[in-house]
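Example S7 (structure tokens).
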């Protein structure tokens, strides 16, 4: 006795294939073309949400020691953003377009951290917040606070080590160290409100970058580069990348430790959380809360 007729992948019967073609509203589209459409389609918003939410769940479940050393690695890696900027500025002519090109150096540290799957505090302002928004409980809030505390402390420890290493050891030419300090001194001119509101913008951009990654596929390099380039060229402030600059200012005698903590760390940390969590994460959750 003959078996059932099939067409397409996975033994799909003719009726099911016809229904799939009908759902696309085109009689002339083939089964192979339907598969191409599905492969080329951008994931639906609830799918992106679920990818980011699961990533956050996995991060909160990691042991504290793993989070710590991944965060330290992230802090060390992010210090290459300032170094790459300084290298480009040292070798580029002093022209009006120099900041536009030199700002691409800022993306280097973020590329290492994100593509290397190291922990970065500002990424977690969306990844670990989405699971909490889905199931708001004391336990989930505590898990989020635990990850935030460990990763932020580890990131800052990593950038402090990098700043001390660059300042006290002969790891680079003096002109390169001078250029790093010149870039860092832009922070001195900013007031507390400017630090905060510029940090809101960078927190939003980093959260947007994380949200775009599942749909980017092979374009992740370009997404990371462009979003972080915008932070640099826009003069926005980032609590981890900027901590490398603020540490160098303290070690050079331009700032006191209390000024670094009160004038930089407090407003920028708060601004990054507001931009990444209160704005982007909450809005992203609101888009899909009736669909999940």
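Recovered sequence:
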């Amino acid at each position: 006795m003959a078996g059932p007729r099939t067409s397409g992948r996975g033994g799909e019967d003719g009726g099911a294939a016809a229904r799939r073609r009908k759902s696309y509203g085109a009689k002339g589209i083939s089964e192979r073309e339907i598969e191409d459409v599905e492969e080329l389609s951008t994931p639906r918003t609830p799918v992106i949400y679920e990818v980011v939410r699961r990533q956050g769940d996995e991060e909160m479940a990691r042991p504290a020691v793993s989070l710590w050393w991944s965060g330290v690695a992230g802090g060390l890696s992010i210090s290459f953003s300032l170094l790459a900027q300084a290298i480009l500025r040292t070798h580029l002519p002093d022209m009006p377009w120099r900041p536009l090109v030199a700002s691409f150096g800022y993306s280097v540290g973020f590329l290492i951290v994100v593509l290397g799957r190291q922990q970065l505090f500002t990424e977690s302002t969306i990844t670990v917040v989405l699971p909490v928004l889905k199931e708001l409980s004391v336990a989930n809030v505590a898990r989020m606070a635990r990850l935030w505390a460990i990763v932020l402390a580890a990131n800052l420890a990593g950038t402090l080590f990098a700043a001390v290493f660059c300042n006290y050891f002969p790891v680079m030419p003096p002109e390169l160290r001078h250029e790093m300090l010149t870039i860092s001194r832009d922070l001195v001119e900013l007031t507390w409100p400017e630090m905060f509101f510029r940090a809101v913008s960078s927190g939003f951009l980093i959260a947007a970058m994380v949200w775009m990654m599942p749909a980017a596929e092979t374009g992740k390099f370009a997404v990371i580069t462009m979003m972080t380039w915008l932070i640099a060229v826009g003069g926005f402030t980032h609590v981890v990348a900027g901590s490398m600059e603020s540490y160098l200012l303290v070690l050079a005698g331009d700032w006191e430790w209390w000024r670094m903590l009160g004038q930089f760390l407090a407003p920028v940390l708060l601004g990054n959380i507001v931009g990444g969590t209160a704005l982007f994460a909450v809005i992203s959750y609101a888009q899909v809360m009736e669909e999940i």
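Notes on this example. The chain is about 75% helix and 0% strand.
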